[in-house]
Design brief:
Length: about 220
């Protein structure tokens, strides 16, 4: 599948898939979107407590890298699991400009490790941050009461509606601990209804730049 590196409005890059007419991140700003959706409306809700995170769509590693940088600032302990069926290639990872755009030049080696680390093997990126990557289809996730927080960052509903189904969200509900949270950039009525049918309580909040609203789902 052909993939292209493109620049988004905030200067950070994303990957574009021409065959699907789909981007890995918002064209309005990859970094802006990641901070707004997954840090402000996700990680911040865990109130600095030790947190176990599942990312649905590891992709470019941006959400993981930003979460890592946040834990360096706050001292929060994080166990991060990133699931990806079709990993970014090493030559693609080398073209991603997140380290410079985030003024995190001291963490270039960490970002490289996000993409070079072996799959299925826990890697300690810092004293308080552990990453485990799983090359796995989202449909095959069968974790039970493991995670406090899910970053749901799959390709958009028009491209892959099957990833936004009640069946997938039922798997997410099962994977979360009681009082767990799922956060996503999406806000379609059909997605909200699928979440609710899976058992979630769902809340709309302001979306990132270029998007009016997004969803936060709560278990229990």
């Amino acid at each position: 599948m052909k993939r292209e590196i493109v620049i988004t409005n905030d200067g950070s890059v994303t990957i574009y898939v021409p065959d699907m007419d789909e981007n890995y991140h918002s064209r309005y700003g990859a970094i802006q979107e990641a901070y707004h959706v997954f840090i402000k409306n996700g990680l911040a809700l865990t109130e600095g407590k030790p947190v176990s995170i599942l990312e649905i769509g590891f992709g470019t590693g941006l959400n993981c890298f930003i979460t890592y940088l946040e834990t360096l600032k706050t001292g929060q302990e994080a166990d991060y699991t990133g699931v990806e069926a079709y990993p970014v290639l090493q030559q693609e990872a080398l073209q991603l400009n997140y380290v410079s755009q985030l003024n995190a030049n001291g963490s270039q080696e960490i970002f490289n490790t996000l993409h070079s680390a072996d799959w299925g093997v826990p890697v300690k990126l810092s004293e308080k941050f552990t990453l485990t990557k799983r090359q796995q289809r989202f449909e095959d996730i069968n974790d039970k009461s493991v995670f406090d927080l899910i970053y749901f960052d799959a390709f958009g509903y028009p491209t892959q509606p099957e990833l936004w189904s009640e069946e997938i969200f039922a798997k997410m509900y099962t994977a979360l601990k009681d009082k767990g949270i799922l956060v996503t950039y999406a806000c379609r009525t059909v997605i909200k209804k699928a979440m609710q049918s899976a058992g979630f309580s769902v809340k709309k909040v302001q979306g990132p730049p270029g998007k009016r609203e997004m969803l936060i789902a709560f278990k229990g």
